[in-house]
Design a protein that fits this description.
The complex is a heterodimer of chains A (about 350) and B (about 110). Chain A is of the alpha/beta class. Chain A folds into 2 domains: about 170 residues, FAD/NAD(P)-binding domain (3-Layer(bba) Sandwich); about 160 residues, 3-Layer(bba) Sandwich (FAD/NAD(P)-binding domain). In chain A, about 25% of the residues lie in helices and about 30% in strands. Chain A is built from 7 helices and 20 strands. In chain A, strands 5-2-1-9-20 form a 5-stranded parallel β-sheet, with helices on both faces. Chain A has a 5-stranded parallel β-sheet with strand order 11-18-12-13-14. In chain A, strand 1, helix 1 and strand 2 form a beta-alpha-beta unit. Chain B is globular, with a radius of gyration of 15 Å. Chain B has about 110 residues and is an all-alpha fold. The chains are: A alpha/beta (about 350), B mainly alpha (about 110). At the A-B interface, helix 5 and strand 17 of A face strand 1 and helix 4 of B.
């Protein structure tokens, strides 16, 4: 029997973990990444919730996982053409053609473009940043305003581009609530004198020890939570930001100034997912993420025979679930190729 | 009448509010920080069932530095402590109310401070 080949598109956490699992099962894996390095969004994460583990630690582990003789890594590479054969796919990558017995799509997500919510002023007011920008500041070990000052107040705005009909996204991006709580604590650790506020619609702490982290933020760090969606923001003369929202628990409108405003940008299906969906004629769900063959029993199978899906290209997902999901997909691919 | 009255804003102007009393109340009873505004306290409250006294909302006002309503309403609590019994987050509401009265209404402490 000749060794079967699996093409994995996207070398983020899902693609990397699945590569390792499939290689250990004895398959030949070709891991395709459009960027110059593997790791996807994980490269940008300073610390992970809820245990505040450095993102780098997980990345190092995953890099170790894909160091396997059965895995061929192709960076700076994209699938340009797809041809469906009887029981396999012919893929054109960088002018070379390869044959894949199965394809795993792990094209992940893109961050919601926060400039679309113009009323929040991202890209207009320098002291309005996104959670990704703040993560970068944590990497650099310094959180300062545009003017180079230590912020006396930081406000997090939940659900930017999520649960928002006007943004075209009715779904919840799931991980932003706990990310805001994590980042709020990181701000307090770095700058104990800084006041931190979170503006939320609902606090959705879906994972183990997330609720505990939320409680810690309130109890130990004094982070204040205000239930109300920001309606608009404007810039003051000194560069600080005036926020307007309803404090729905008080039943009154509320005005507050902040030195730094952090938008919790949600997850949207990646541009690569869109491209791959066309190439493989895959179906999208109502939320535009990939549609599973069955939400319970065939979660990692697309509607297309031989094409599998895993990670945040299926739905907004955290690192823990992405890794578990990638392994689940590996088992499904193994079953498919054996039968 | 038009031209004679200016309607006062209902909005909470957080930065203009005096937050000293709030900080003092939070220091005396920090457990209110973990409130998730579920409203169990208000639902069980005898005063709240008979009058507009809403302890859940009053504590939100307190944390925003809005004391007008609190000053008007706080005497309605009969200190039965049912709110404290039902709270899922373990907020000591009864003690919080006592301390809020001390700070805002200058009531004498019921017990000597340690």
């Amino acid at each position: 029997m000749t060794m079967k080949t699996i093409a994995i598109i996207g070398a983020g956490p899902a693609g990397m973990e699945a590569s390792g699992s499939l290689a250990r099962l004895g398959y030949h894996v070709v891991l395709i990444e459009k960027e110059a390095t593997v790791g996807g969004h994980l490269k940008n994460l300073f610390q992970l919730f809820p245990d505040r583990r450095p993102g780098k630690e997980i990345l190092t582990h995953l890099v170790q996982t894909i160091k396997h003789p059965g895995i061929q890594i192709k960076v700076n590479s994209e699938v340009s053409e797809v041809q469906k054969l009887d029981n396999s796919f012919a893929l054109k990558i960088n002018e070379e053609t390869m044959n894949a017995d199965a394809v795993l799509v792990t094209t992940g997500f893109d961050l919601y473009d926060a400039t679309e919510k113009e009323e929040y002023g991202y890209g207009i007011y320098p002291n309005v940043i996104t959670s990704a920008d703040l993560e970068q500041m944590f990497h650099n070990g310094k959180v300062v305003t545009e003017e180079g000052k230590t912020p006396k107040r930081v406000a997090f705005i939940h659900c930017v581009g999520s649960r928002d009909e006007k943004a075209g996204n009715n779904y919840c991006s799931k991980v932003c609530c706990v990310t805001a709580v994590k980042q709020a604590i990181e701000i307090k650790e770095l700058l104990p004198e800084t006041e931190v506020f979170c503006y939320y619609m609902d606090i959705r702490m879906f994972g183990p020890y997330y609720e505990e982290l939320y409680r810690e933020a309130q109890e130990k760090w004094g982070v204040m939570f205000i239930r109300g969606k920001l309606s608009e923001a404007s810039q003051n003369m000194d560069g600080s930001i005036l926020m307007k929202a309803e404090d729905t628990l008080a039943g009154k409108p509320l005005r507050m100034n902040t030195d730094l405003m952090v938008l919790m940008a949600g997850m949207v299906p990646s541009a690569s997912s869109k491209k791959v969906a066309q190439q493989f004629k895959m179906e999208e769900g109502q939320n535009r993420f990939f549609k599973s063959a069955d939400n319970h029993y065939r979660y990692n199978e697309s509607q297309q025979m031989g094409v599998f899906i895993a990670g945040a290209c299926v739905a907004p997902m955290n690192i823990t679930d992405t890794i578990a999901n990638a392994r689940a997909a590996a088992v499904k691919i193994d079953e498919y190729l054996k039968n | 009448m038009w031209g004679f009255n200016i309607t006062k804003t209902r909005a909470i102007d957080f930065d203009k509010n005096n937050r000293e009393p709030m900080m003092e109340i939070l220091r005396l009873e920090p457990s209110i920080r973990v409130c998730i505004a579920c409203g169990a306290c208000t639902a069980t409250c005898t005063s709240g069932n008979l009058t507009p006294f809403n302890i859940r909302q009053l504590n939100v006002f307190m944390q925003r530095g809005e004391y007008q309503e609190l000053k008007k309403e706080m005497h309605k609590c009969m200190l039965c402590g049912k709110c404290t019994l039902v709270c899922p987050r373990g907020v000591n509401l009864r003690h919080l109310i006592l301390k809020t009265r001390e700070v805002l209404l200058n009531e004498e402490p019921l017990f000597a401070q340690n």
